[in-house]
Amino acid sequence: MSRKTLARPKHIPQRMCIGCREALAKRALVRVARTPDGVKIDPTGKAPGRGAYVHDRRSCWEAALRGPLEGALKTQFTPSERATLEIHMRSLALEESAESDPEAKAGGAA
Ligand SMILES: [Zn+2]
Fold it and tell me: Which burial class, exposed, middle or buried, applies to 27 when counting CB atoms under 10 A from its CB (0-12, 13-18, 19+)?
């Protein structure tokens, strides 16, 4: 006798954005890792240490950098770590993210 389980869709691994607390697929998020060398952006998602995820969206970074990100990583950023994260934040488009791949032209217009 097989009985269908109720409302259990296939599980897709998801992570929660520290900024807006929405859960979504990992690829839409940027991992920030607290590695032995300090806190850094972890584009590969493979850095050792505790990690937290933030949407690739500026508003989420702004929210996350107000405190929740430090809480999630159980650390306090040094000024240089914070600067690194802020630089990343500023590199993001203000609202709509232009979904461009990183290989795309990084400003070399003729
Ligand atoms: Zn978010």
Answer: exposed
| Entry field: residues in the chain | 110
Q: Minimal CA–CA distance to 86: which of 53, 52, 62?
A: 62
Query: Which residues are close to ligand 1, an ion, with C-beta < 5 A?
Result: 17, 19-20, 55, 60
CA of 19 to the centre of ligand 1 (A): 5
* Structural class in CATH, domain 14-91: alpha beta
Q: What is the pTM of this model?
A: 0.72
Whole-number Å distance, alpha carbon 20 to ligand 1 midpoint, is: 4
CA of 101 to the centre of ligand 1 (A): 19
Instruction: Give the tens place of pLDDT for each residue, 9-57.
Output: 777 678 899 999 999 887 789 999 999 999 999 988 899 999 999 998 9
**How many A from CA of 23 to the centre of ligand 1?**
8
